[in-house]
Design a protein that fits this description.
Helix content is 11%, strand content 35%. It is mainly beta. The two termini are 50 Å apart.
Length: 448
């Protein structure tokens, strides 16, 4: 811990030695803070304009308490109401008011009394699928960890974000599950992901491993999803949620234009300029599921992650499994602000490469433009048409980089047939010919 003037920065694992047992990041004005009350095991992620609060309940179960407008300090408002619910089992037979079937949880399990959608499910060697994760410990550190072999948002400097890791454990199996929450300093987002570690002695077969689950204590929401088809992507569907399960997913091996790995819950009357929005986006291009479940008591559970349909993963002793990342955003300023939050994050901290902060060159796509049947003269014709079109709308000529060599060029007679590489690969336009055409067009033509 270091102190610079009135600013306090925390760099490593928290302990009770810190003043007030609180971890803060304070710059000029309070922008971002992770507040931890060790006595109550309460975790408060305080973002730029929002707060997200969790607490360890009796017997080590991690519960979700609040997500919404930023609060200076969580004082226990909107407390969980414990009461006897018929057909909701009780871990403690002497207390019929405590049930995991009604507890708002952060990462719910299957087989321990919660009959709602679980966040994960694991099959043991004896065929059982019952597991029981309890709170073990937590870690806090500056920055945002990379996800091994997975796309994810990132930071360029550790001061941009702070990360909370909450470790849950099933002692019987030797299974530890790390819930990772990263909070950006100047962006109203929280990112979540999960890592499974098999520290036991038996093989574990993973049947479900979602990236995030959030429980809301009412159902007064409308659901927004994005559906479509080829050449007709991202149509907006908005409907009131009802008791039961509402789901969008993909089993196509890709997230697909049919359904996007996104959903948002909004209050009635929310429009572009006002109203509460809770948005969820899975940063993953494979099979996915995004679900909303309303239980009989009007509680709402949102869960996203890898689609459990046809999914299984053998987690051997000593191995780990990392889920994709979910980006979660809250705003009270409507759908326009939500879009702005996601766009600014993705354009600066998800996109990479030399053109991230530059105007991108125009790409001549030789799939639709030429169906791979092209030569230097055809590229010149396209470039000249482009040059004229740009001048017609009052723009200077922009550089062009047609892709001319990513796939083999085939003659028309072979275009719809499957041939061997030796039979279909033809000579591409030579570099010097394209260079000559570039000078003629006054455009930058790059062969890739």
């Amino acid at each position: 811990m270091s102190i610079k003037g009135n600013n306090i920065f925390h760099y490593s694992h928290l302990s009770s030695k810190f003043i007030g047992k609180v971890c803060l990041i304070i710059c000029a004005e309070v922008v971002m803070a992770i507040y931890i009350d060790d006595d109550q095991l309460l975790f408060h992620l305080q973002g730029k304009n929002s707060s997200y609060v969790m607490q360890v309940q009796r017997d080590g179960y991690l519960a979700h308490l609040y997500w919404g407008k930023r609060v200076h300090k969580y004082r226990g408002s909107n407390k969980i109401i414990f009461m006897d619910r018929g057909f909701s089992p009780n871990p403690d037979a002497s207390d019929r008011t405590f049930s995991l079937d009604t507890l708002p949880q952060e990462y719910p399990a299957y087989g321990n009394g919660d009959f709602r959608i679980p966040a994960y499910q694991i099959q043991l060697e004896n065929g059982s699928t019952v597991t029981d994760l309890r709170y073990k410990e937590y870690r806090v550190f500056k920055g945002k960890p990379k996800l091994k072999e997975l796309p994810a948002t990132y930071v360029e400097n550790d001061s941009e974000a702070e990360t909370l890791e909450i470790i849950l454990e099933d002692n019987l199996l030797g299974l530890t599950v790390t819930l990772t929450y990263s909070l950006y300093e100047d962006r109203d987002v929280i990112t979540r992901s999960v890592q499974f570690d098999n520290r036991g002695s038996q093989n574990l077969k993973m049947l479900r491993a979602l990236s995030a689950s959030v429980d809301f204590r009412d159902d007064e929401y409308e659901l927004i999803t994005l559906y479509g088809a080829h050449n007709n992507e991202k149509n907006i569907e908005r409907r009131k949620i009802v008791p039961g399960i509402q789901m969008v997913d993909s089993c196509r091996g890709a997230s697909s234009p049919q359904q996007a790995p996104f959903l948002a819950l909004v209050r009635k009357g929310t429009d572009e300029d006002q109203g509460e929005v809770y948005s969820f986006n899975l940063v993953y291009s494979g099979n996915f599921t995004a679900q909303v479940q309303v239980d009989p008591y009007r509680n709402t559970r949102v869960s996203l992650g890898i689609n459990p349909f046809d999914f299984s993963w053998l987690l051997e002793p000593g191995e780990t499994f990392q889920t994709p990342e979910v980006v979660m955003a809250y705003t009270a300023k409507g759908l326009g602000e939500m879009s702005k939050i996601h766009h600014e994050l993705y354009s600066k901290r998800l996109c990479r490469g030399r053109f991230r902060d530059k105007i991108r060159p125009i790409l001549i796509n030789n799939w639709e433009a030429t169906y791979f049947d092209f030569d230097a003269e055809k590229i010149e014709q396209i470039a000249l048409l482009l040059k004229g079109a740009l001048k017609a709308v009052g723009h200077d000529v922009l550089p062009t980089e047609p892709v001319v060599s990513q796939l083999p060029c085939r003659p028309r007679s072979q275009r719809f047939g499957v041939k061997s590489a030796s039979a279909t690969r033809l000579k591409r336009p030579s570099g010097h010919k394209l260079e000559d055409k570039r000078k003629t067009c006054s455009l930058s033509i790059q062969q890739e």
